[in-house]
Automatic annotation (TrEMBL):
<keyword id="KW-0808">Transferase</keyword>
<dbReference type="InterPro" id="IPR018357">
    <property type="entry name" value="Hexapep_transf_CS"/>
</dbReference>
<dbReference type="InterPro" id="IPR050179">
    <property type="entry name" value="Trans_hexapeptide_repeat"/>
</dbReference>
<protein>
    <submittedName>
        <fullName>Galactoside O-acetyltransferase</fullName>
    </submittedName>
</protein>
<keyword id="KW-0677">Repeat</keyword>
<dbReference type="InterPro" id="IPR011004">
    <property type="entry name" value="Trimer_LpxA-like_sf"/>
</dbReference>
<keyword id="KW-0012">Acyltransferase</keyword>
<dbReference type="GO" id="GO:0016746">
    <property type="term" value="F:acyltransferase activity"/>
</dbReference>
Amino acid sequence: MATSFYSEDELKKIGFKSYGKNVLISRNAQIYGASKMVIGNNVRIDDFCVLSGAIELGSNIHIAVFCGIFAGNTGVKMCDFSTLSSRCVIYAESDDYSGEHLTNPTIDEEYLERVSGKVELGRHVIVETGATILPGVSIGEGTAVGSMSLVTKSLDEWGIYVGIPCKYKKERSKKLLELEKKYNKQYGE
């Protein structure tokens, strides 16, 4: 019986650098540059996601429907228990929109300028629906980014940030760390 996720044999054929146990990737997701991707255990990537470039996903990660991660050679890292809600986008590389250079992939490199910087989402980071993360951003452990937020600079740990550009709103509870311990004890992580 066919499922909407790739089988173990199909995952092997995609050519990931490495991947762990219980990896569920929708057959409707698009993967570019799989040989640069490292995927941990218990990872789920839903329909219509696009993953491109040097991406490192820890364990217990969910990437919801219609997300895009554009890492290029610069890289995007999502640490354990991090989550992207639907329609989120992460850019580790982008065109320079200043007007000093041409833009888009149909143009020769000599006319382009790239803005790039590794992006890292710490453990237990959740990024709510429709948020956008720009190059060079680090989001600290336990931080929540609100719906439709624009992340243009790095965010501290255990905060809730919202807006365009996003700003600190309040502290986030750390109770989930107790729940993580129970989960790891139960599932041997």
